Amino acid sequence: MTSQVRGSQLARLLGQWHALPGRRRSPDYAALAAAVRGLLADGRLPLGVRLPAERELAEALQISRTTVSAAYRQLRETGHLASRRGAGSWTMLPGTHRVATSGLWAPLDDRDMIDLGIAALAAPPELVPAARAAAEDLPRYLGGAGYHPTGIIELREAVAQGYTDRGLPTQAEQIMVTSGTQHALDLVLRLMLPPGGGALVESPTYPNGLAALAARRARIATHGLAADEVGWDGELLLGSLRQSRPKLAYLIPEFHNPTGHLMAADLREKLVATAHTAGTDLIIDESFVDLPLDRTVLPPPTAAFDRHARVITIGGMSKPYWGGLRIGWIRASAPLVQRLAAVRVGMDMSSPVLDQLVAVHLLAVGPTIVAARRRQLTAQRDVLIEALAEQLPEWRVTVPRGGVTLWAELDGPVSSALARAAEDVGVRLAPGPRFGLDGTLERFLRLPFTLPPAELVEAVGRIAAVRYDLDRATASRWRDPVVIA
Fold it and tell me: In this model, does residue 380 exceed pLDDT 50?
């Protein structure tokens, strides 16, 4: 699944590499090598991608081939490039940089900890009345066995109506209810990705998505997102699909987790067409689609451009409603839904009927709940941005137009060290490497704005205090793993 980056594409990624800090103290080849290392560390240049030939890159950058050759040699010496005569050079990271991407479970909840590792809101006040109404509806189902592999019809119809209201006509037969969005992803991968199959993901991306792919022993390729407002480089993304032809691509076009980016409509259309040509099925994660902020207008759903049943959409109620209500869904062709149900029967049979009834009642008042969530998140986002500007002005943040997270670019590659230090002062963080592969993204940190404003301000103050003490930090201790959601 090796793909190649062309000279013109790498030149665009490098940008003004010759004007980077410290450039005047470095020869051209060293500055070029440092710029490539920076792209790798930030996840914008994928691992395992073949770089352009020396002559091609020299022409694209308008420098001598000798400079490029020396830069490649230095990258090989530092462990960032592997070359084979006659075959080319591939990007990599030194073995000592590898960091696990999955964050799992702490044994007990620590109520004194400000937890910024989980990007989810507390339950809305409408949940309790919905639960009471669901309990009153439950007797209608008690006469049966309670197994509904694709979900109860009321919920499937409600979810289908939501897609139809967004301009994507959908029937209940195209919906399968799951026990959360993560369960939906796992089911799709079990059915559609053979062990060792190729998969394309964004970098950064949702860490539990990476964990699900790793469980299938997938060969993962990445498309690096820029930290600016655009995010996706359309030419590189579509080129990766054409070159590597992965079996699946897992993408988050609506308020991407963790960056908050929103994919433009024209790129969605090109993405679907290119995926069809490449023989790639698209898994589109819409976990945050209900949470646009600042009156942002959503583009059409990615599946609206699908004419060949290539797009499988997953979503759920964890982000706009409550994570404790484990209700998700899959939207796909009706035949595929039936195949997914057959796979599911060998796992967990079906989702709890009572939970599904609660979901039906919540979706009935969904517009009221979601409107309140948007107001709450907008206010909390602005508080967090203001606190960061005041306490950590060296950090850079692109204001997201939706979702629940900021993707902060730090003043150095200290994300993991900062997370360890912050835990000592009662703040749990999700460091950048959790969202990438093999130790990339150390200059980034995901910061959700799902907590009350006072807690966000307090958390930033504690983070700022330990950031300035990192150089004098003592040796780290072993810690329990924590939830990254």
Answer: yes
